[in-house]
Design brief:
Elements lengths: L2 E8 L5 H4 L7 E7 L11 H6 L8 H16 L1
Antiparallel strand pairs: 1-2
Length: about 80
Amino acid sequence: MNKIVKEHYPASRLPEDLRAGVDPASTVTITIVEEATAPREVMSLEEIWALRAPPFRTAREIDDDLRRRRDEWDD
């Protein structure tokens, strides 16, 4: 975890939302602490495949559908 401390920092140089209620002529001490983030879990290939949106058709179902549509054109 990183920590940055700036002492005697001019309040006038603070971002607007941090300047509220602070005399712009004063100096301040700024402490920045990086927040810990939750580790990202790596998904397995099985989990990725499980997230696919159904319906999934077999090659035979696709072929049958194409044949049926082709036959409709002949009519």
